[in-house]
Amino acid sequence: MQLSKEQLEQFETDGYVIIPAVFSQAEIQRMKDESDRILELCINSTLALGEHNARLDVRNRGGQMNVRKVQPVNDVSDYLEEVSRDERLLGPMRQLMGGHDPILMEEKLNYKQLLKQPVDFTHFYTGGRSHEDFFPLHHDWGYYRREGYPKSIISSALTIDDSDIDNGPMRIVPGTHTKDYPTVDPDPASNNGRVDERLFGENERIPLLFPAGSVMFFHSMLLHDSVENHSGRPRRIMIYSHYPSNHKAEEDKRNCALRDKAREQESRYREMLANKQFANQFHAKGEYSTPLEAAT
């Protein structure tokens, strides 16, 4: 898949471009299945060990578990790792990077999913976080710069569910990738990409409404946020971020600590399953969900 001249010009002007219907319905269903299975792994391992799975970003909304995101995911999903290398993503990014090969920097699965199934997580939830699943106004490079990554990073946001006005869509401020907007905390060590919310009004933030299987490519400096999901449905988006091959970086530098910690936790959890010290309590909602034990 190649971007047209017009699409390349749009990216240069606006900092993003959307390609609808890149992935088929069958591929989308596989992504939904994987999303369910990964969620089961993270929640059940947390319940079994009584400690927060390092991948899991969860918020408390009135006693219900509100899953914001899981990061990283490629090491627990062969299929999602395969998608990260799909030429339908890499081809356009290669164009946008001036012919340089895209190198994967990080991958995350944004769920924005309020779980309906009762789950007792009071013993591992550390508190200190609000219940909201929204993402504040920010640019991604504000977070990436801590590890020395370049501003030329491009992310692909792949919709697993339809993104509509009710389920907390991403919102972007077109053209903001051309200016280095100061973050709320200018200290690079803070790992903070948030910018002052007063910079842009609600009418300047464009909601991105596109069907499942679509892909948005966006610049790391593009300002964006998302609103809270009140639909009762998940709004899952798989985000892969790549840097151009002319930048040299340590492999998996950004996510390696989280990945190593989560693997160690999940190994202990699987031992508990094998020794019948724990039985899975959480089963993801969906048309199909791979049995967790079979996936391990």
Reconstruct the topology from this structure:
Elements: H1 5-14, E1 16-19, H2 25-49, E2 56-61, E3 64-70, H3 78-84, H4 87-96, E4 102-114, E5 135-138, H5 141-144, E6 154-159, E7 170-172, E8 206-207, E9 215-219, E10 224-226, E11 237-244, H6 256-274, H7 292-295
Antiparallel strand pairs: 1-9, 2-3, 3-4, 4-11, 5-10, 6-9, 6-11, 7-8, 7-10
Helix pairs in contact: 2-6
Tags for this model:
21% strand; Jelly Rolls; four-stranded antiparallel sheet; seven-stranded antiparallel sheet; 7 helices; 11 strands; single chain
Question: Can you characterise this structure?
Answer:
- The protein is built from seven helices and eleven strands.
- The chain has 296 residues and is of the alpha+beta class.
- The protein has one domain: q2cbj1_9rhob like domain (Jelly Rolls), CATH 2.60.120.620.
- β2 and β3 form a beta hairpin.
- α2 packs across α6.
- It is globular.
- It starts with a helix and ends with a helix.
Q: Please identify, by name, the CATH architecture.
A: Sandwich
Strand order of the largest sheet: 1-9-6-11-4-3-2
CATH fold title: Jelly Rolls
Q: Give the helix tally.
A: 7
Distance between the termini: 34 Å
CATH superfamily: q2cbj1_9rhob like domain
Percent of sequence in beta strands = 15-25%
Task: Classify the helix fraction into a percent range.
Answer: 25-40%
Number of domains: 1
Shape: globular
Largest sheet: 7 strands, antiparallel
Contiguous low-pLDDT stretches (5 residues minimum) are: 286-296
Mean pLDDT: 89
Secondary structure category: alpha+beta
Structural Rg:
19 Å
- How many β-strand runs? 11
